[in-house]
Amino acid sequence: MPGQRPTEDTPPMPAPPTTRGGELFFPGADGPFFEWWPEDGGGAAVDLLAAELSRLAYATLPRIGAELGRIGFDLLATLESRRLFTARAAADGFVCRDPRSGTTFAVFRGTETGNVDDLLANLLVDPFEWRPGVVVHRGWGLTFDELRGPLEPWARAAGGRLFAAGHSLGGALATLCAVDFPAAELVTFGAPRVGTGRLALGARQPVRRYVHCCDLVPRVPPARFDEAD
């Protein structure tokens, strides 16, 4: 009912979405993270967890480690590509595991505001044969291949469920991760198009792609990028 005060049986209403520029351009600068995480570590929807991990990927490495430790996750590896211009930046991603469920997450960071290396990766839009017969956006294909080394042993050794997740540019990298590691379930947020129709995931490989109706990023590169098929 309007004006009803929260009780033990009536949880408080969530805060309305924010439109503050700082949170838009620097998702990992503010906290707290995982406000909704239960103390026993269970009961959370996995896609909500993937979204929060994708936001955490924008934070500094010390913050990533501290926040994962706070919810009982193990930080297994950090993922970093070669950098030409940005001496100090957030990692390109990380691999973590929930030891209670055995679930492993490969999480990729989106474009970092002011990061020239990220901008260059985004601008290398020419089609590139990433794997035999598989054509993708050159910048993202090359970036993922730089991250693959520290990621592969954990992806291969995952005993429970394996997820690849990321926002924007991170969603593109997560998509390539799911192609290379077919055991991975894919969850992306505002991810762009990555390659041609031959960039196929497994027939039974779970994929959940979240987009906002007014977000232009999921619509680039334009559809004509796929005309070769």
Q: Which stretches are poorly predicted, pLDDT < 50 over at least 5 residues?
A: 225-229
- Judged by helices, strands and strand pairing, the structural class is alpha/beta
Query: Helicity range of the residues?
Result: 25-40%
Strand content: 15-25%
Write out the strand line-up for the largest beta sheet, numbering strands in chain order.
1-2-3-6-7-8
Largest sheet: 6 strands, mixed
Question: Could you tell me the radius of gyration in angstroms?
Answer: 18 Å
Helix count from the secondary structure assignment: 6
Overall average residue pLDDT = 80
Could you explain how this protein is built, in words?
29% of the residues lie in helices and 19% in strands. By secondary structure, it is of the alpha/beta class. A 6-stranded mixed β-sheet has the order 1-2-3-6-7-8, with helices on both faces. Strands 4-5 form a two-stranded antiparallel ribbon. Helix 4 packs across helix 5 and helix 5 crosses helix 6. The relative contact order is 0.12. The C terminus is likely disordered.
